Amino acid sequence: MAHQSDLIAEDIHAYLKSQEEKSLLRFITCGSVDDGKSTLIGRLLYDSKLIFEDQLAAIEADSKKVGSQGGEIDLALLVDGLQAEREQGITIDVAYRFFSTDKRKFIVADTPGHDQYTRNMATGASTAELAIILVDACKGILTQTRRHSFIVSLLGIRHVILAVNKMDLVDWDADTFETIAGAYRGFAHDLGIDDITCIPVSALTGANVFGHSPDTPWYSGPTLLDVLETVDVSTDIAQRPLRMPVQWVNRPNLDFRGFSGTIASGTVRPGDRIKICPSERESTVTRIVTYDGDLESAFAGQSVTLVLADEVDVSRGDILAEAENAPDSTDQFAAHLLWMHDDALLPERQYLMKIGTKITTAQVTDLRYKIDVNTMEQVAGKTLELNEVAYCNFALDQPIAFDPYKDARETGGFVMIDRFTNGTVGAGMIDFGLRRATNLTWHDMEIGKELRAQQKGQKPCILWFTGLSGSGKSTTANQIEKKLASLGRHSYLLDGDNVRHGLNKDLGFTDADRVENIRRVAEVSRLFVDSGLIVLVSFISPFRDERRMARELMGEGEFIEVFVDTPLELCEQRDPKGLYKKARAGEIKNFTGIDSDYEPPENAEVVLKTADHSVNDLADQVVAYLRDGGYL
């Protein structure tokens, strides 16, 4: 590790202090496939002498086995560590590497070039302050160059180095370089990227990476390392208003109550007036507590516990902010969204959203438009597929505190999470909050659900029948309603086909329309329950997410899932409407059980086996459940 100074041997404490005082730059390399991103990082590591001898020996051995340089050392293997990456000669996952020079420390992320790994590239860019975008001098600007540049701009990176690589393969032609540089500047300007440094390089030979190359006498600009060591990415994060997302309410005993977290921006001192967001209660900081004792001040990046003068309600996910300059609060906002999952985003489907330390339920209420990252055109769409970007309106189940992403990444960026798998499915950047109409208020009525139910002598609920087409949902529900009527009970049956003749006549059978179909029916069912009725809902409702959403609209014990469990083969034999025959012939698309998935319930309250019992027996089974549960 030869660039290190003699202080390592002479005065290790002085050396460590000098390292602490160096600034840190986080940057990414991105671009299209085979532009040389991994090789460039390997060159930076190799020329900065940050490779141990055993590592170098291993790379030399691997280069002879799987390298792409004819047995010569393949520097890309320093970064591409996965077996699949080495076998295919591509980058799949984000690889982070550390290196340093006498002037600065660096953390670099090597990101994939293939479009199917765009989500991985966005992950690497989310914490970067500068982007090196590589372009193959032989190919020029490609689709993926534009895609990555757009994501770079979307994620707030404003410093870009355009490295025109493989200049040795075009005989160091100055016109080729100038043509590519000019085209990129024009494209990037439209994205709001104006700080661009264009450099002709060869990552393979190291030309213009650490030192100027004699092959480019026509180039008088800086080397790649010159820009990395001198670019000013310092921010006014310490000068910005205080933002501290609460990670933990620290209450070890009755005599102490503090709020722990990492300060995202700003500075705080005892005596400062702060506001708790989104509740907007105010208090004063009395102590800044750390493991090593109290502090007189704390600033961005420090993890501390703040003690307040007042007994105010503060929870995990709240933001402690400067009282005179607090973030906005809303339960609806507009944001850009990058989708990162193989299953498409479905508007109105409920997901979890994590912003800072707060997790809440969220749904896209309006996919306003998708963005064609190749042309920057706004295009219509009902769903969002893997690696696509859209501008959407969101609705949450509770207010959040936020800053626009362009002003603060820490309090303006969020991730979307699947509620069943807990996997990250999307990443978003908040633009602005959406205000609800101020003239809307909820009117409490003197006659409520309890009195309406008492008048009818029953406990209102939803019997939610789900199953494949032809399983017997409507037939069974109809028989149950006849039995309830004979008992003098008050009910209403919502049938899937019947509702589509009126309320939902505008909806088709795409996954997005199926989600909206169930959302509307769930809201109507809730109104019927509020009127004191026993509501029978007979819908295929193929997705667990939407059935769960319907359940969560209701009170405890008011939602009863009835799984009409009938094998697909039997449903096809019955085929009362001839739909399976048409689906098998390709005349009907997105038919559940054939070319659209059905997700059976995992913990239904009632399971009806229609292959083994008569309709009357099944109806008696459900009525018995209602009677045993106190609904009748």
Describe the structure.
It contains 18 helices and 28 strands. It is of the alpha/beta class and 632 residues long. It has 4 domains: 7-230, P-loop containing nucleotide triphosphate hydrolases (Rossmann fold, 3-Layer(aba) Sandwich); 243-322, Elongation Factor Tu (Ef-tu), domain 3; 330-433, Elongation Factor Tu (Ef-tu), domain 3 (Beta Barrel); 452-628, Rossmann fold (3-Layer(aba) Sandwich). Strands 7, 8, 9, 11, 12, 13, 15 and 16 form an 8-stranded antiparallel β-sheet that branches. The chain is globular and about 95 Å long.
Characteristics of this structure?
632 residues; alpha/beta; Rossmann fold; Elongation Factor Tu (Ef-tu), domain 3; 4 domains; eight-stranded antiparallel sheet; six-stranded mixed sheet
Topology at a glance:
Blueprint (H helix, E strand, L loop, with lengths): L6 H4 L1 H9 L2 E9 L5 H11 L5 H14 L16 H6 L6 E6 L3 E7 L7 H8 L4 E7 L6 H12 L4 E7 L8 H17 L4 E6 L23 H7 L12 E3 L2 E6 L2 E7 L4 E2 L4 E5 L3 E10 L2 E2 L3 E2 L3 E6 L10 E4 L5 E12 L11 E5 L2 E14 L6 E2 L9 E14 L6 H4 E5 L6 E10 L15 H8 L4 E6 L6 H14 L4 E5 H4 L11 H20 L3 E5 L5 H10 L5 E6 L3 H7 L4 H6 L21 E3 L6 H14 L4
Parallel strand pairs: 1-3, 1-4, 4-5, 5-6, 24-26, 24-27, 25-26, 27-28
Antiparallel strand pairs: 2-3, 7-16, 8-9, 9-15, 10-14, 11-12, 11-16, 12-13, 12-15, 17-21, 17-23, 18-19, 18-22, 19-20, 19-21, 22-23
